[in-house]
Write a structure and sequence with these properties.
Number of strands: 12
Number of helices: 4
Mean pLDDT: 81
Distance between the termini: 63 Å
Low-confidence stretches: 234-241
Strand content: 25-35%
Length: 241
Amino acid sequence: MTGLAPTKDVPVLVTSSVGSSERRINPSWTIAHLKNKLESVTGIPPLAQSLALRSSGKEAIISSEDEHVAQIGLWPLTAYAELHVTSSDSSAPSAVPPLSSVPKYEMPSETYSSLPDTVLAYKRTHQIGRFNPHAPDLKQQKLAELWKEVDQRSSRCILAPSTTRRGSVSYVGLVPELPGVGPWVGVRLDEPAGKNDGTVSGKRYFNCEPHYGVFVRPDRVEVGDWKELGLDDDDDDLEEI
């Protein structure tokens, strides 16, 4: 049997009774060499391994009278084929058991809260987040700033930072169906580059054709005397909800 010249590694999916993982093998490896490497992956001793290569609905058994000479590349080894490993020894140990089967220690919240050197303790000491006595006031301040931005809106607008995403303000207010706090601005775009038709989760906030509506935060909206653009003007693809 003629040996194969060294070639590039081929990614395959190694499967066994303990799970599956992607590995790279070289077609120039012998069967014996491959089995030695698979022991650490499957937990199956080389002498107890049976190899099957599965690809495109076909299965090829990898076996030879002299596994120290026969090379893997002699079989139809294709990228991301399944290399299934079974054991002829029922007492063969598994490799690493699934994490889901490993008992995990969960510290009671009361115990964690009483520890001095934790992130929670640091936040409590430095009055960060929910431990900040002024947190409710800061939240209200943020909401007030958003509403102030809303009150300054007029009809024609662009969606910053673009100067080509233009439209008309069609709704200003809360949208409970969207995440976060504070007001949203519903914009009817000049071009069909939006995300909706003025509805969110089946609730209508303004009227427009499909793909002409979009909801953005007030700081994305810049009002002014923005005329509609011609066909030769470019459009930007920005993130909206």
